[in-house]
Amino acid sequence: MFKLMRNTIAAIAVVCMAAPSDTLASDEDPWAIWKQIGVHALMRHATAPGTGDPSNFTINDCSTQRNLDDTGRRQARETGKQIRQHGIPIDTVLSSQWCRCMETATLLALGPVTEEPVLNSFFRDRSTENQQNEQLIARLKGLPEDSKALLITHQVNITKLTGIYPRSGEIILIRLDENGNVETLGRIMPMAK
């Protein structure tokens, strides 16, 4: 009986090790990772129901865009609260010009928000994705080494840069290596809705 249990446990362990994971390999606390020098964060805007934007989308008119709902607004406020409670010192908040990103960034209440066109979505027009990705890496390289930036953007932008498909409100922790390549270090799941 004991041998059967031991073999069963061993088989379960092998299956678990081989199973795909939705998280990164690191067991380190992502909040501790974020405090390390050179670590920045990408955040997908908080919950905004739907996909893409209406055909009459205009960047300066929020009524033509998909926007945060009450759940998304609560999510953004709670995320900002958690960041402050964990003592993450944010020096720079950059945001896509889309209203749902700007509202997320503002509701986080972590400091002044700077519009950053390189973070704008290329969901409808993939012709700019490589150029935007290169510009984003250059923007990150230009930040002071000891600074912490939080970049509010879209799923497509984050996936292009990291290979991760983030949930609404999810934070992906990154750092540039010595060759300027993006290292993905951790994930912080969206705050409770």
Folded structure, characterized:
There is one protein chain. It is globular and about 40 Å long. It has one domain: 3-Layer(aba) Sandwich (Rossmann fold), CATH 3.40.50.1240. A 6-stranded mixed beta sheet has the order 3-2-4-1-5-6, with helices on both faces. The protein is of the alpha/beta class. 36% of the residues lie in helices and 16% in strands.
Can you give me a brief rundown of this structure?
The chain has a single domain, classed as Phosphoglycerate mutase-like (Rossmann fold, 3-Layer(aba) Sandwich), CATH 3.40.50.1240. It contains 6 helices and 6 strands, in the order ααβαβαβαβαββ. It has helices at residues 2-18, 30-34, 70-85, 99-108, 129-141, 155-162; strands spanning 40-44, 92-95, 113-115, 149-153, 171-176, 182-188.
What is the residue-averaged pLDDT?
88
Low-confidence stretches: 1-23
Class from helix and strand fractions: alpha/beta
**Silhouette:** globular
Beta strands, count:
6
What value does the Rg take, in angstroms? 19 Å
Q: Mind summarizing the main beta sheet?
A: 6 strands, mixed
Q: And the CATH topology?
A: Rossmann fold
CATH top-level class: Alpha Beta
CATH homologous superfamily annotation: Phosphoglycerate mutase-like
CATH architecture call = 3-Layer(aba) Sandwich
* Helicity, as a percent range: 25-40%
